[in-house]
Design brief:
Blueprint (H helix, E strand, L loop, with lengths): L62 H19 L14 H15 L35 E2 L2 H10 L6 H11 L1 E5 L6 H12 L1 H10 L23 E3 L7 H4 L1 H6 L6 E5 L12 H14 L2 E6 L14 E3 L5 H12 L8 H10 L1 H7 L8 H15 L5 H20 L25 H15 L5 H19 L14 H7 L2 E8 L7 E8 L3 H13 L4 H11 L5 H17 L1 H13 L4 H14 L5 H13 L4 H11 L8 H13 L6 H12 L4 H14 L2 H16 L2 H4 L26 E2 L5 E2 L29 H10 L5 H8 L4 H13 L4 H19 L29 H9 L7 H15 L8 H13 L13
Parallel strand pairs: 2-5, 2-6, 3-4, 4-5
Antiparallel strand pairs: 1-3, 7-8, 9-10
Length: 938
């Protein structure tokens, strides 16, 4: 391949692909290496032998030149030995790159805030009477001053569905006269309280009904004018202006309740001027109510100033409503008058349809009562033909967005008064909204780290809370409460739950861990979209917080944060680039630069952001700042930024060839990631060409990639791909032909003829003529490749790619064979081949047998006890299919036999002779030394 273009190699390399002479240290792939018996072959195009001794036609160099040449050769060999290291090897966390790749796959699969998540409905859902559930009500409005009408109690009695634990609530209320019912807003706590009071005061209702009279009014308490105390009705509510009487005058509150009646009190979410009652005040209230035969239910939020009452003798948590049962019942109610006998069946099918569940984005069993009524009403209208499908799906998607808006509308109280002169710092005023700020911070942190360890989310939430509190009250140190957390109440308020999962935080080994996640995939994106789009003042603290998370040593934290940073950047690319990406792309810490590259790849997920990122990364690839080139190499390896694979490889080669190969390792890491996907055929073909006829820089990059392909596992490099354009051509139609002869896909799937991707320096795609014209290589199907590689995540990378991507098998085999025969890379490549043999042996062992028995030793028709029939031995089959393509002459066969003997004689976990003989026999059966290109079936 000619290197007369912009990215052919380092300036002045002198390699023109046309037979330029090579130094003694640049062996062409395919030449024979030095074997253990000491044989060497002289380098081609040189008058010296492999050791640098003077030939018969030339004079020898002095000892200084020989020493310098030896040091240079040692450095080159060391670089190939280091090719198995990941870019984060210096972080002190073993296996961090593999863990980062896994976390990135999980984050991209779970998290998405594009599309409808950033569109917000501005209508209000205020169709409630008193409760916030079952009848579509919300408990964010101020309590009603007066009695609860009997017809409303009758209606609630008909529609209410009692949750599990309801009998316990009723028993406690009857026995103690006062019940503190705890739960977040929207969980049905008000309706539950009203229904409890309705049941325990039935004697008053029955007495009035039997006499044929309306429910009598209670007498006014002595000395009061009636202001603030509800004096009528069987069930009454206390006005907000008189909540202070709960602690100041409990008797006055009780006197305003009808004998045998009930009182419902909703305590405020924040402190304000309200003095929270203590348990002794409730004791006085309960005693007075008992004398009157009356009852009281106090509604509190766990995170409110009165949340401590839930830990006392009167406190109980409001059990969650049976959302599934309630949803089905609401659907029956809304379709009761529909003449179509199949209407209910169709409605139930819609509730289980994947499209509906995806649009809803909240687990049906996690819906709140008011939301179940909304969903049932919309589904019923759709069944009747009154609502189109897109309108139904949009209405369901608004539930999560509306919930996020409610969470962050008025999430913090106004600032406290400014400190007096000389009273700053610890002596200054306390931010009374700190508890609500921490709750909001937990929701944001959970949106970023959804599904990760509880400890990770809690730590990240506190860091964000400190950032927000510092913005609210600069100059003050904000401490963290200790032993004051109510995790259960916080999870209920955030619609989240604790699960048991796995985490690879130490040594890359999965270990059990408690994780926390939203009860629905739409909530995380809705929270981030709400904060980023509607609360601009929060952007600064969130941006600084995400940058802080970039330095977290846990991949589960910084990779998730990087994916979120990339998504947020697309909402305002200029702001996101300046605040989240550019500062980290030039950081000294490799983890922070990895963060920036991951964010860039995420931001390039769709047009028009991909074009903007493409131009920026192309500039960075040729930038004078080394850290920018390092970040560009890692970003290019994602495969999301530059559509043309050959152009991407040339950019990576240009990065790796500068400054005497200072960034060759990270460039090879990026190029290897391109092989681990649907571009495998294209990328492997380019690497094979470079190993045959490329420049010195191209040869080095090809051999480094070959070593990585030998030594890496699939899940070290593979990332799930996605096609964001629904109208884009199928993946197998995409090719690596020059973009100048193809059409570019613009936003919305519109074909824009004549547009070419920008190149460094503003130039368009350079023309390729003559020897640069190559037949296109088909790009594999993204869906098929992802499925095949995901199934083989634990396989050696090259084996998995060769099996999964048909067009990659032959170029990969040629490339790997040349790395085994290359003087500099053969040692590291041979070690990689040994890892293949180890993996194949381990995979072929039949479990549950005494000793070590392999699948090829089983009796025909016998299946393993663990039910893995058909999967055991797959790696061995793939190895025996690909290995003949790496054995092309006698020396290749001798290398394999020598390696098998070495592994059989290993002091720790030696390979069995049976397995070694099986491999040798399989190679002999394929015609060893004849190229291995028989008609064996894959």
């Amino acid at each position: 391949m000619s290197d007369d273009g912009e990215y052919g190699g380092a300036e002045g390399s002198g390699a023109d692909g046309g037979g330029a002479s090579r130094g003694p240290d640049q062996w062409r792939a395919g030449d024979e290496p030095a074997w253990q018996d000491g044989e060497r072959r002289p380098g081609q195009g040189s008058g010296r032998d492999a050791d640098g001794e003077a030939g018969p036609d030339g004079g020898g160099r002095d000892r200084a030149d020989e020493a310098e040449r030896g040091e240079r050769r040692d450095r080159q060999e060391e670089r190939f030995r280091e090719a198995t290291r990941d870019p984060l090897a210096d972080s002190g966390v073993p296996g961090e790159a593999r863990t980062a790749a896994r976390v990135q796959r999980a984050a991209q699969a779970r998290f998405e805030i594009r599309g409808n998540s950033s569109v917000f409905d501005r209508t209000n859902f205020d169709r409630a009477h008193f409760g916030d559930v079952y009848v579509g009500a919300r408990d964010t409005a101020a309590p009603v001053f007066g009695d609860v009408p009997e017809d409303e109690l009758d209606r609630l009695r008909q529609v209410y569905r009692a949750p599990a634990g309801y009998p316990t609530l009723k028993r406690v209320l009857r026995g103690r006269r006062v019940l503190v019912l705890g739960g977040p807003p929207g969980t049905g706590r008000l309706t539950t309280g009203l229904c409890l009071l309705d049941e325990v005061t039935t004697a008053v209702r029955d007495m009035a009904s039997g006499a044929g009279n309306p429910v009598p009014e209670a007498a006014e308490p002595g000395g009061r004018t009636g202001t603030g105390v509800l004096t009528r009705g069987r069930v009454t509510r206390l006005a907000p202006s008189d909540l202070r009487l709960l602690s100041a005058d409990p008797d006055a509150v009780a006197d305003g309740v009808l004998d045998g009646g009930g009182l419902l009190v909703q305590l405020p979410e924040s402190a304000g001027d309200f003095t929270a009652p203590q348990e002794l005040h409730l004791d006085a209230l309960a005693a007075r109510l008992a004398a009157k035969g009356s009852y009281a239910v106090l509604i509190v939020s766990p995170a409110s100033p009165t949340g401590h009452l839930l830990g006392g003798r009167y406190g109980l948590a409001c059990p969650p409503a049976p959302a599934g049962e309630l949803l089905e019942w609401q659907l029956v109610r809304h379709l009761a008058d529909c003449p179509d006998p199949d209407a209910l069946g169709r409605g139930e099918q819609i509730l289980k349809h994947p499209l509906f569940l995806d649009a809803l984005g909240i687990l049906p069993e996690a819906l709140r009562p008011s939301e179940t009524e909304l969903v049932a009403e919309r589904v019923a209208r759709h069944v009747r033909g009154e609502l189109r499908r897109d309108e139904l799906l949009d209405a369901c998607g608004q539930i999560a967005r509306r919930q996020a808006r409610e969470w962050f509308t008025g999430a913090a109280d106004p600032l406290p008064p400014a400190p007096e002169p000389g009273r700053a710092g610890a002596d200054g005023p306390v931010d009374t909204a700190a508890s609500r700020v921490r709750e909001a911070s937990f929701r944001i942190a959970l949106a970023v780290l959804d599904g990760e360890a509880v400890s990770s989310v809690a730590d990240a939430a506190e860091l964000l809370a400190q950032q927000i509190l510092t913005v609210r009250m600069p100059g003050r140190a904000h401490g963290r409460p200790v032993f004051a957390e109510d995790l259960e109440g916080l999870l209920a308020a955030c619609r989240a739950e604790v699960r048991t999962g796995e985490e690879e935080s130490v040594g890359g080994v999965p270990v059990p861990v408690r994780t926390v996640a939203y009860r629905g995939t739409a909530l995380a994106g809705s929270v981030l979209a709400e904060v980023w789009h509607r609360h601009h003042a929060a952007r600064g603290p969130v941006t600084r917080w995400l940058r802080d998370l970039a330095g977290d040593p846990r991949p589960q934290v910084w990779v998730r944060a990087a994916v979120v940073a990339g998504e947020l950047a697309t909402a305002d690319l200029g702001y996101g680039f300046a605040g989240l990406i550019r500062p980290l792309s030039v950081a000294k810490d490799t983890r922070r630069r990895f963060f920036a590259a991951t964010a860039l790849a995420q931001a390039a997920g769709r047009e028009p952001y991909r074009s903007a990122v493409r131009g920026m990364v192309a500039d960075w690839a040729d930038a004078p700042v080394p850290t920018l080139r390092w970040t560009a190499a890692l970003a290019l390896g994602s495969g999301r930024i530059v559509d043309d694979t050959r152009q991407t490889m040339e950019l990576l080669c240009g990065i790796g060839g500068r400054d005497e190969g200072a960034h060759a390792l990270v460039a090879s890491y990026g190029a290897t990631r391109l092989v681990a996907g649907s571009r495998a055929g294209e990328a492997a073909t380019v690497l094979r060409e470079w190993s045959e006829n490329g420049s010195a820089e191209q040869l080095d990059l090809a051999m480094l990639c070959a070593v990585r392909l030998f030594c890496a596992r699939t899940d070290d490099m593979w990332q799930a791909e996605e096609s964001d354009d629904p109208g884009a051509p199928p993946a197998d139609a995409a090719t690596s032909v020059p973009a100048s002869v193809s059409r570019v896909w613009g936003p919305g799937g519109v074909r824009l003829a004549g547009r070419m991707p920008e190149q460094p320096g503003g130039a368009g795609q350079r023309a390729r003529t003559g020897q640069d014209e190559r037949p296109p290589v088909s790009r594999a199907s993204v869906e098929v490749t992802d499925a095949e590689l995901a199934r083989r995540a634990h396989w050696p990378l090259a084996l998995a790619v060769a099996v999964a991507v048909e067009s990659a098998a032959e170029p990969l085999a040629d490339l790997l064979w040349r790395s085994l025969a290359n003087r500099l890379s053969h040692e590291a490549a041979t070690e990689g081949l040994a890892t293949w043999l180890r993996a194949a042996e381990a995979d072929a062992v039949v479990p549950g047998r005494t000793g070590r028995t392999y699948v090829f030793e089983q009796v025909a028709g016998e299946e393993p006890a663990d039910g893995t029939a058909g999967r055991r031995g797959e790696i061995l089959q793939a190895l025996l299919w690909l290995l003949p393509r790496l054995i092309r002459d006698r020396r290749d066969a001798e290398r394999l036999r020598w390696l098998l003997r070495l592994m059989a004689d290993a002091p720790e976990e030696p390979m069995t002779a049976a397995f070694a003989r099986h491999v040798v026999a399989a190679m002999a059966a394929t015609g060893r030394g004849q190229g291995g290109r028989g008609e064996e079936q894959r």
